[in-house]
TrEMBL record:
UniProt keyword list: Membrane, Transmembrane, Transmembrane helix
Record membrane topology: Multi-pass membrane protein
Name of the molecule in the record: Integral membrane protein
Superkingdom as given in the UniProt entry: Eukaryota
Length: 299
């Protein structure tokens, strides 16, 4: 009889002290209960968030009334569908315990009706803001962003229609765990698309900040690249260091200051060796002139 205990009964007995400890199967049952409960509301929450975004963007009173009426319709649909799922069998235990003789509703009809209403709701969300958008003066960039938002919403409508097709094809089913894999897949696609569509407007500040971080990193990399010395500068600096050490070494006599010769910083069209040879030749000519002037004065 343990398999007939519900998670609520497990928590109730644990709270009253009838159970000393919850085992791993109890915790998985509680997790399954929470998951099934929140699955009833994720589509409703995503659609309501999109309606709230519409209300914030468009300021006309007529549009606000239409969006609020749509939110009320979503809420009524979610509550009715939740009660139909909970009370599909009387007594409720007959839903999971097939040994109990009870009266149950047609689950396939409930699922098909909910899928059809979901398609209508998705198309309504896509069509509702179009008249207001036609009145706005938007830039080309904003028009592309709005077009992307509507494209994502249209894909959610397509996913709803594909899911309804599989619901009709596999109802009733004698092996739900195998036959309902396409239904579960397209249901996940529809809900994920709706959540993404409702989250895109809120992601705009994040994208703007991320683009600013990328621009800052790009500027820093370019600044660091400009500070790196080129090959000609390194070569001339090395030669200058060698000549300085040569002039200060006791092995060589002191020399006169060298002449400055213009040098191209790019180093692409001049040879460093040739330039240094020209400098040495000029120094030799200067020394010969100095010796000749000294001999002329002595004579």
């Amino acid at each position: 009889m343990y398999h007939r205990r519900t998670p609520f009964r497990e928590l109730h007995d644990f709270w009253l002290g009838r159970l000393r400890k919850l085992w791993w199967d109890d915790w998985t049952a509680i997790a399954a209960m929470i998951q099934i409960t929140e699955e009833r509301f994720y589509k409703f929450s995503a659609k309501v968030s999109i309606c709230c975004f519409y209300i914030r963007v468009f300021v006309t009173r007529r549009f606000h009334h239409a969006a609020l009426a749509l939110i009320v319709f979503f809420a009524v649909h979610a509550i009715i569908f939740l009660f139909l799922v909970i009370f599909q069998c009387m007594p409720i235990n007959a839903t999971w315990d097939k040994e109990i003789q009870g009266q149950c509703l047609d689950v396939s009809a409930i699922g098909n009706g909910g899928a059809a209403l979901s398609i209508i709701e998705d198309f309504t969300l896509v069509i509702l803001p179009i008249p207001e958008l036609m009145k706005l003066q938007l830039t080309r960039k904003r028009k592309l962003a709005v077009g992307l938002l509507f494209a994502v919403g249209s894909f959610a409508c397509i996913a709803s229609m594909v899911r309804l097709k599989f619901l009709v094809s596999y109802s009733p089913s004698y092996d739900p765990t195998y036959d309902y894999q396409e239904i579960v897949l397209w249901s996940a696609i529809e809900s994920s698309t709706a959540i993404t569509c409702g989250s895109l407007p809120a992601l705009r500040p994040l994208f703007r900040r991320f683009s600013g971080i990328l621009n800052t990193l790009k500027d820093r990399l370019q600044a660091g690249h400009r500070k790196e010395p080129n090959a000609s500068f390194v070569t001339v600096k090395a030669i200058h260091s060698f000549n300085s050490s040569k002039e200060t070494s006791p092995k060589y006599p002191p020399q006169r200051p060298r002449l400055l010769v213009p040098f191209d910083a790019s180093g692409a069209s001049k040879d460093v060796t040739t330039t240094m040879g020209m400098i040495d030749q000029g120094e030799k000519d200067g020394l010969e002139l100095e010796d000749w002037d000294k001999e002329r004065r002595e004579s």
